[in-house]
Amino acid sequence: QATSALARFRRDSRLATQPAEAIRPPDIYNRDGWRCQICGNDVNKRARIPHPEAPTLDHIVPVSKGGSHVAANVRLAHFICNTDEGIEADSEGGKGGKNPSAAPPLL
Description:
single chain; alpha+beta; two-stranded antiparallel sheet; 2 strands; disordered C terminus
């Protein structure tokens, strides 16, 4: 409980110093064609977290690494891909995933 509160505080502090914009997840999901930008497979529109195929927003450059919370820096990812990517990044010291540098198309 305390760890998650601390993590939220740290994330909010980083976001306060980075450019940010209001992002509507459905807009990003539609922009990305309901395809996971990490594995390339279709995302289940009806799934909800914690279902592995649920849609989530993934920061291409993580906020913890100086990335911004803007549409150009987020992409659609399966919950499991986004979660596994974070685990890989922690163990490898970088952003994981099959295509970590792929930027989404600009709106």
